[in-house]
């Protein structure tokens, strides 16, 4: 990853890198794609907001709540759409008049 101007570049955590590679190599392709997507997302956040810091002034519990609620809303919207698409059709005959 290219360091951002004005942001310190810490020494890489070789131990964490080794753990990630070891774990990654034992996962299936779908799980590997999930982790790769998460790593890309963390990198995108770092590009926008900088690296995580111990003295981060943001209030994480509030941000976590808002982000999780947003994700749940989008997931529910999609699930409702899928439920309509795959709902079993009612094959019960209509009552005679």
Brief summary:
This protein is mainly alpha-helical and 97 residues long.
Coarse shape: elongated
* Strand count: 0
Overall pLDDT score: 85
CA distance, first residue to last residue: 71 Å
Structural class: mainly alpha
The total number of structural domains is 2
- Count up the helices: 3
The protein's oligomeric status is single chain
Radius of gyration, taken over Cα atoms and rounded to an integer in Å? 22 Å
Query: Major β-sheet, in short?
Result: none
How much strand?
under 5%
Helix coverage percent of residues?
A: 55-70%
Order of helices and strands: HHH
- The poorly predicted ranges are none
What does it look like?
This protein folds into two domains: 13-53; 57-87. It has three helices and no strands. It has helices at 14-25, 29-49, 60-86. The longest helix is centred in the C-terminal third of the chain and has 27 residues, at 60-86.
How would you describe this structure in keywords?
2 domains, mainly alpha, elongated, 97 residues
Topology:
Layout: H1 14-25, H2 29-49, H3 60-86
């Amino acid at each position: 990853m290219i360091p951002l101007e004005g942001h310190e570049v810490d020494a890489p955590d070789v131990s964490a890198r080794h753990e990630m590679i070891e774990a990654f190599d034992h996962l299936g392709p779908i799980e590997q794609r999930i982790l790769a997507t998460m790593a890309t997302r963390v990198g995108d956040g770092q590009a926008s907001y900088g690296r995580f810091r111990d003295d981060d002034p943001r209030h994480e519990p509030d941000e976590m709540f808002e982000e999780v609620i947003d994700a749940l809303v989008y997931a529910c919207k999609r699930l409702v759409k899928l439920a309509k698409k795959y709902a079993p059709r009612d094959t019960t005959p209509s009552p005679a008049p």
